[in-house]
């Protein structure tokens, strides 16, 4: 069991530690919040926390909603966050000899203080580790676009039934014919006037 780390990473209080910042070395990142480091192990979990290589020298970039939660935890402990990734980049399984692999192995051997990612719990994990109150419970969901109001140019037709529209058309036709007959009759009267 091993973890990706590099030697020579500062563990003390850096200058300006009261300001939020990052110190990267190899695959370890310290997110300075206050003073004492809280070591957090994490494999990536899309949607919660992402760990991606930032450059050719192996530095990491950590982002996602759980990084904010880790910052809040560290700030409440007057501390900073140190992220460590397991060498196998797994959450962890229990070996027949009772040892754990992945991030749970780092937690079991106390290389990290806590896991920095959301995990499912089975009976073995529940028996071997202390767990927090669930941060969020979720089910699978279907995602769809919410309907938005759109302009409907034929919307004025909808309030009336077809019978009403037929009566409106008949009325228009009767009015038009009446006006036409009236105008022609009036024109004939003016022509025949002495």
TrEMBL record:
Subcellular compartments: Cell membrane
Highest taxon in the source lineage: Eukaryota
Spans annotated as Disordered: 1-20
Keywords per UniProt: Cell membrane, Glycoprotein, Membrane, Receptor, Transmembrane, Transmembrane helix
InterPro entries tied to this protein: Insect_Ionotropic_Sensory_Rcpt
Gene3D superfamilies associated with the record: Periplasmic binding protein-like II
GO cellular component, one term: plasma membrane
Main location: membrane
Full protein name: Ionotropic glutamate receptor L-glutamate and glycine-binding domain-containing protein
Membrane topology: Multi-pass membrane protein
Keyword Glycoprotein: yes
Regions that span the bilayer: 162-181
């Amino acid at each position: 069991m091993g973890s990706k780390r590099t030697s020579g990473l500062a563990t003390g209080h850096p200058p300006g530690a009261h300001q939020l910042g990052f110190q990267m070395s190899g695959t370890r990142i310290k997110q300075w919040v206050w003073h004492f480091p809280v070591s957090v192990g994490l494999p990536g979990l899309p949607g919660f926390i992402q760990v991606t290589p930032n450059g050719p020298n192996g530095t990491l970039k950590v982002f996602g909603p759980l990084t904010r939660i880790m910052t809040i935890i560290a700030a409440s402990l007057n501390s900073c966050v140190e992220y460590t990734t397991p060498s196998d980049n797994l959450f962890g399984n229990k070996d027949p000899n009772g040892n754990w692999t992945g991030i749970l192995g780092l937690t079991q051997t106390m290389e990290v203080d806590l896991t920095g990612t959301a995990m499912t719990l089975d009976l073995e994990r529940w028996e071997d580790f202390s767990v927090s109150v669930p941060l969020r419970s979720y089910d699978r969901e279907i995602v769809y676009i919410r309907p938005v109001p759109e302009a409907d140019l034929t919307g004025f037709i909808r309030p009336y039934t077809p019978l009403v529209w037929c009566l409106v058309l008949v009325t228009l036709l009767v009015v038009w014919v009446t006006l036409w007959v009236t105008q022609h009759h009036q024109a004939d009267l003016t022509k025949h006037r002495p």
